[in-house]
């Protein structure tokens, strides 16, 4: 519950009341009368009551503030606990990230190893294709060389025979012309199916 006036305002009000009540009586007689004394006693009683109430209110305020500070402290402790939990969670997340980083490093190492193996396999494939191409080239070269070396002696033997066959062809033509005139020759040529 809030007070209508703050403690400082109560103090100022009490001081003003004391001063206000003392000034008119002093201005009337020039001294203190019994009435002034009674008034000061009442004022003192009011002021004492006021100070007691003010002290009680101040003590209540202090207790209320202490209670609130304790509640705030409890809230801060709860926040500290929550922050501690969050810190633990962040540490767990950091550990998980470290594990993921380690796994990524392992995967990178495996990829590097696979790249090396792939490079070796590519080199092997190139070597196999090169060897196959070399074997094919050697085979074709050998076949061409063999054909040329085989055909030369044959050509040297066949050329004279071709000339002889040509001569025989001309001879046969001549004999056919003669067979038109000679019937015995025509029969001989027919028996060999040359006519």
TrEMBL record:
Signal peptide range in chain numbering: 1-27
Superkingdom: Bacteria
TM helices/strands, residue ranges: 121-145
Key words, A-Z: Membrane, Signal, Transmembrane, Transmembrane helix
Name of the protein in question: Uncharacterized protein
Protein source organism: Desulfacinum hydrothermale DSM 13146
């Amino acid at each position: 519950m809030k007070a209508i006036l703050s403690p400082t305002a109560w103090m100022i009000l009490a001081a003003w009341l004391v001063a206000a009540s003392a000034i008119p009586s002093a201005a009337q007689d020039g001294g203190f009368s019994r009435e002034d004394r009674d008034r000061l006693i009442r004022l003192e009683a009011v002021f004492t009551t006021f100070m007691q109430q003010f002290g009680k209110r101040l003590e209540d305020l202090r207790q209320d503030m202490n209670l609130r500070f304790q509640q705030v402290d409890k809230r801060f402790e709860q926040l500290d606990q929550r922050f501690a939990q969050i810190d633990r969670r962040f540490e767990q997340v950091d550990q998980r990230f470290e594990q993921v980083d380690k796994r990524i490093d392992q995967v990178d190492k495996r990829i590097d190893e696979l790249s090396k193996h792939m490079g070796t396999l590519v080199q092997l494939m190139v070597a196999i294709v090169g060897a196959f191409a070399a074997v094919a080239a050697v085979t074709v070269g050998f076949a061409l060389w063999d054909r040329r070396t085989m055909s030369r002696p044959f050509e040297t033997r066949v050329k004279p025979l071709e000339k002889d066959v040509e001569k025989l062809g001309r001879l046969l033509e001549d004999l056919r012309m003669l067979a038109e005139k000679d019937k015995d020759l025509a029969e001989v040529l027919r028996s060999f199916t040359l006519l």
